[in-house]
Amino acid sequence: MSKALENMGFEELLEATKKMESEKAALKSKNAELESKSSKLESKNTELESLKTELETKLSDLQFRVDQLNRLLFGAKRERFIKNADENQMTLPFDVEQEPEPEKQQETITYVRTKAKRINHPGRMALPSHLPVKEIVIEPEEDTTGMKCIGREVTDQLELIPAKLFINRYIRPKYIKPEDEETLTHKGVIAPLPVFPIEKGIAGPGLLAQIIIDKFVDHLPIYRQIERFKREGIKIPSSTLNGWQESVSSLLWPLYENLKRRVLQQGYLQVDETPIPVLDKTKKGKTHRGYHWIYYSPLEKTVLFDYQHGRSREGPSKLLKDFSGYLQTDGYIVYDFIGKRKNITHLNCMAHARSYQNLNIIKSCLFSPLIISLLPALLCRTAFDNNYARPLKNNLSFLSFSQGRTLISLSKMSRDAFSKDSLFSLESALA
To answer: pTM for the whole thing?
Structure first.
């Protein structure tokens, strides 16, 4: 560059200098323009930050208001703080002169009050009288020779003797007649064994009864019972305990059949099914869903459990094939099939009729003229105090946002214009 400048003439250098000055001025103007743009962007960024802060504050305030309104409208009764007086209710334009209050006269009254006798504290809970009593007499350590006993202080304490395992050893002596010994017939005499619950089993009736009660009454699993036996120094495999359960179940089968016959002879049954996880023998550690079908007789207050692998109608159809009377169930379609029999009168459950599952009736006719005329009464403050209106109020979650706004608008219209008879009209219309 220096060599190029040395070879230039004066005019060329002058032109180069002018060109550099013009480029320098252009750069300065461009730099000033960029700086102005930068300052504008910074000011705009500051405005946006302040606007963002303002909007966030306003959003939190609006969200708080919405939460408060939802709590007032749909919250629990104890969480509502709506005044009893309607702010939009106008007063009647009647000027009634207030009557002057009469002068209050004072008089002296005397009476005799019967003071109730103070009832002493009942003290500790009385122990049951049917329990055996073991008396323990504690004499003083001092010498009581020549003293006279003037009374006794009795202190009762409830105690427990832990269950313990023991062995019943049945010893049966064998006898033989002398003539048999001489004739070498060896025909002996021995007492027969008593009848055991499990033939050739080592478990006695008391142990079997305790295992069944712990398993099915106290819900103590088999593996916990095994650990309890281990603490006593006895190891019983789980397969042995399961085999004992099956044997006891076979012994109790006649009682189950008698219970089933007795329950099904009643003329009124309530039936429901509930799922239960069942261990799968083919897959270790896996379960499948089974069902307990419960048949309850309100007349005798007896319950029959019938286990089925599924929820199909085969199980109840087979069990109720000879049933005759009233059958009360929920809305499961299987019961509708059984209720069509001539000897069965099918009854529904009011608790399920008012549940969320059956609100599709209200959804289908939500904006019909009848419903529109009655919904404000259902949503008003006084209507929610009725037991028959509360389930509808608690199950309005199926409404869309627009339907909910329309419903709230309807609830604000003439809250006191509907009586309780309107609710009964809605009840009969939806029946």
So the answer is: 0.51
| Residue 406, both tokens | 């329309």
CA atoms within 13 A on the CB side of 185: 10
Q: Residues 256, 259, 261, 267: what is their CA dihedral angle, to the nearest 10 degrees?
A: -150
CATH superfamily of 265-351: Ribonuclease H-like superfamily/Ribonuclease H (3.30.420.10)
221 close to 215: Cβ distance less than 8 angstroms: yes
Task: Tell me the per-residue pLDDT of 72-91, one tens digit each, with 9 for 90 and over.
Answer: 777 766 655 555 556 666 66
pLDDT given at position 421 = 46
Give the confidence band of 424 by pLDDT, cuts at 50, 70, 90: very low
Residue ranges of the domains in the chain? 205-250, 265-351, 356-430
Half-sphere exposure of 222 (CA within 13 A, CB side): 12
Which residue has 């499961």 as its token pair? 332
What is the spatial distance between Cα 317 and Cα 323, in angstroms, rounded to a whole number?
10
d(CA 221, CA 211): 10
Q: Classify residue 395 by burial, with Cβ atoms within 10 Å: 0-12, 13-18, 19+.
A: middle
